[in-house]
Amino acid sequence: LDVIDNAFVSRLLGTVKMEVNRGLRGLEESILQKLMQDRFSEADNSLQQLTAAGQALASIVGIEDALEMASRARMYREKRERETESLRLMIDSAKDAADRAAQLDAKVQHLESLRQAESETFQKFAASFAESIAAREAEMK
How far apart are CA 13 and CA 4, in angstroms? Predict the structure, then answer.
């Protein structure tokens, strides 16, 4: 086609290359959106398509490097997966901490009720002791 010196063919090829590039960028963008939504298996399927397209189109001048796009998307996938796992671990840790806090709160409430019961018992004992002392003093008079 390079031998043919036809402006119409050149424009047609330029248009096709623009559409192919637009499709590749759209596929890359679709992958990134899927990854942001934690739809990893769907993103992996699209990554395979982008990689296949990159291999098929690698030698055509004027077509964006789809293999490079796929490489960037894979790096983002790995980063996103690490972030998702880290977030999941933090959530699990927070849930564990909340559970431990609830258990400690229950223990504190139990200890408070024991302290209250002990205080009431002590007050009854003190009142009984005071009555006993008062009665003995009355007997001694």
Answer: 12
Does the structure show a pLDDT above 70 at 1?
Answer: no
Cβ pair 39, 47 in contact under 8 A: no
**What local confidence, expressed as pLDDT, does residue 28 receive?**
95
CA distance 61 to 63: 6
Name the residue among 30, 35, 23, 32 with its Cα closest to residue 66. 23
49 Cβ neighbours under 8 A, 6+ residues apart: 27
Closest CA to 41 of 54, 31, 51: 31
Q: What is the pTM of this model?
A: 0.62
Q: What is d(CA 44, CA 139) in angstroms, rounded to the nearest whole number?
A: 96
Give the pLDDT confidence of 80-113 residue by residue, as tens digits.
999 999 999 999 999 999 999 999 999 999 999 9
Give the C-alpha separation, 42 to 106, whole Å.
45
Tell me the backbone φ, ψ of residue 49, rounded to 5 degrees. -65, -45
Q: Cα–Cα distance between 39 and 25 in angstroms, integer?
A: 19
